[in-house]
Amino acid sequence: MVNIMSVSVEKTGKTVTEAVDAALAELGMSIDEVVVEVLEEGVAPKDGAPYRPARVLVTAEDDKPRYYGDSVNQADHEDEETVAAIKSFVEQVTSAFALPCSVNITLNEDSIDVNIDGDNCGIIIGRGGETLSALQYLTSLVANRERENQVHVHLDVAGYRRRHESNLAAMARRAAAKVARYGRTFEMNPMTPADRRVIHFSLQNFRGVETYSEGEGAERRVIIAPVRKNND
């Protein structure tokens, strides 16, 4: 088992971006060197609603993830059982779809990355990634059923999530460029919490704009707004 040294900083701010920037400043690190967990996205004051700051946990880790393909090696007993359970479950699912897919697993300190690859595996993604999200939830239940220490499971199919997040980030940057240029707020379509986090993170260092979320439930969306200038 690899020993991993980590340092975490919890910060608040008016926006997720502001909170993350404060944590990075304290750690003296860049965004590429840390793991960011959004504890609370925050609520901007509106129509008498109380202001609630954004809150994040930023962790700097000296972490070398371990990779598991068709074989499992150099993991402790609990990790071996978890990897075996995940691999067995996901392979049963792909077999039910009659898909010849491979299952590769990367075990990190407190998360497990599972990637499914192969011809015609796109059926596992589903419309808007709904099937993939459901399978990720079920895989997480399987992974944590017998574990003492819970882990987060991130499931992907042939790099779909990576491409999806890249497209979201590109869309966010295009919208932010217009906001910065014309000074008008831009309201994005309703998104899942995971997609909203991608937008917040991709714009956290974008000059001249800030982001926050508005709405409830399935209607919650990201707002990209020009940074308000102080006239003090």
TrEMBL record:
Residue ranges occupied by any R3H domain in the UniProt entry: 162-228
CDD domains reported in the protein's UniProt record: KH-II_Jag (cd02414), R3H_jag (cd02644)
Signal sequence annotation: none
GO biological process: cell wall organization; peptidoglycan biosynthetic process; regulation of cell shape
Keyword terms of this UniProt record: Cell shape, Cell wall biogenesis/degradation, Chaperone, Cytoplasm, RNA-binding
GO molecular function: RNA binding
Pfam families reported for this sequence: Jag_N, KH_KhpA-B, R3H
Classification via PANTHER family: PROTEIN JAG, RNA-BINDING PROTEIN KHPB
Domain notes for this protein: Has an N-terminal Jag-N domain and 2 RNA-binding domains (KH and R3H).
Record-stated family: Belongs to the KhpB RNA-binding protein family.
Name recorded for this polypeptide: RNA-binding protein KhpB
Organism: Mageeibacillus indolicus
